[in-house]
């Protein structure tokens, strides 16, 4: 079998220009609200056509680095990219790699603990009030499926609130990204069905004790509690995935016993 790696795709001129503009932004220390040179200036600087410059600016806009405004006073204005586009692209990259809860928690067990410790002493009244409001919202959930799904999302949002106070932007991003991964798993695997009161109660207890430890600025207690919380959450996730796998097998057995299979399944079986 030929092991020769495929040649790397040659970058288009517009991509090279957008990369150079990003380097210039970083070198000059530009911030949100600053403007890029206008189209005519960029065309002269790079010796290219208007269409190429516009394509380069569109790349930066899609990446969330600029906003393009038309009319008088318009142009390319720098903006601070949100986390969502980067998280979504990474999740898309991992979408077909069959991630499970255990693989996510291999990282989450480590990173959540370090993130939690890093915010000890950094949470102001507004931060602590936000955590309290989150826990109150969790307590108000009912037993229907939609509310159970909301409950799972609120529990993850508790950790996002902590990540927003993290002084390390890379650690904060990774923790929020893993929470997004778990949020996707909740949706795809319906991880709120069946109702799991034991999981709810454990999450609420750990969140309450964590907030108390944050108020006391007790880093060692925060470390211990978050470590226990992550291990407990992983155990619940493993149990849930086991239940879901068993239900899937039962569903497949019932489906395979049916007299009429789906057209897609018939096509696959015939092709084999």
UniProtKB/TrEMBL annotation:
<dbReference type="InterPro" id="IPR036388">
    <property type="entry name" value="WH-like_DNA-bd_sf"/>
</dbReference>
<dbReference type="Pfam" id="PF07729">
    <property type="entry name" value="FCD"/>
</dbReference>
<dbReference type="InterPro" id="IPR000524">
    <property type="entry name" value="Tscrpt_reg_HTH_GntR"/>
</dbReference>
<dbReference type="Pfam" id="PF00392">
    <property type="entry name" value="GntR"/>
</dbReference>
<protein>
    <submittedName>
        <fullName>FadR family transcriptional regulator</fullName>
    </submittedName>
</protein>
<keyword id="KW-0805">Transcription regulation</keyword>
<feature type="domain" description="HTH gntR-type">
    <location>
        <begin position="11"/>
        <end position="81"/>
    </location>
</feature>
<dbReference type="InterPro" id="IPR011711">
    <property type="entry name" value="GntR_C"/>
</dbReference>
<dbReference type="GO" id="GO:0003677">
    <property type="term" value="F:DNA binding"/>
</dbReference>
<dbReference type="InterPro" id="IPR008920">
    <property type="entry name" value="TF_FadR/GntR_C"/>
</dbReference>
<dbReference type="InterPro" id="IPR036390">
    <property type="entry name" value="WH_DNA-bd_sf"/>
</dbReference>
<keyword id="KW-0238">DNA-binding</keyword>
<keyword id="KW-0804">Transcription</keyword>
<dbReference type="GO" id="GO:0003700">
    <property type="term" value="F:DNA-binding transcription factor activity"/>
</dbReference>
